[in-house]
Specification:
Largest sheet: 8 strands, antiparallel, barrel
Distance between the termini: 40 Å
CATH class: Mainly Beta
Number of strands: 9
CATH architecture: Beta Barrel
Strand content: over 45%
Keywords: Signal
Organism: Mucilaginibacter pedocola
Protein name: Lipoprotein
Signal peptide: 1-24
Structural class: alpha+beta
Number of domains: 1
């Protein structure tokens, strides 16, 4: 009887995990973007992780390393980091942050997130 209970709990866990993954569309993961213009080089990461047991709330951690370019000379690398709490809108495939109104658009075909015109590609 103990084995049957353990197997039942394992199956319930497995089924709930699969349904949560499908519900969120696989948005969790690490995304990267690299850009450069005449003033700056930047290397950005977005790490999207579920928050607690609520399958619609995610934490988005943004880590940016950037180098200013002054008179053609690349300056030492600087870093900044931001954390946002977002809500997943499954039909629209959008992570929405309420305080600043940021929206992260998820593209399942390209496995990417887009925010303010910058596209981040999922690496894991």
């Amino acid at each position: 009887m103990k084995i049957a209970s353990i197997v039942a709990m394992f199956l319930a866990f497995l089924l709930s995990h699969c349904s949560n993954t499908n519900h969120t569309g696989g948005v969790s993961g690490t995304y990267v973007n690299q850009s450069e213009n005449e003033y700056t080089k930047s290397f950005d990461n977005l790490v999207v992780t579920p928050f607690g047991s609520n399958s619609t709330t995610f934490i988005v951690l943004s880590k940016t390393g950037y180098q200013k370019i002054i008179n053609g000379v690349i300056q030492p690398k600087l870093y900044k980091q931001h954390v946002w709490r977002t809500q997943w809108d499954a039909p629209a495939k959008i992570l929405s942050e309420g305080e600043l109104g940021r929206k992260f658009y998820y593209n399942s075909d390209k496995n990417s997130l887009t925010i303010q015109g910058y596209e981040y590609f999922k690496i894991k």
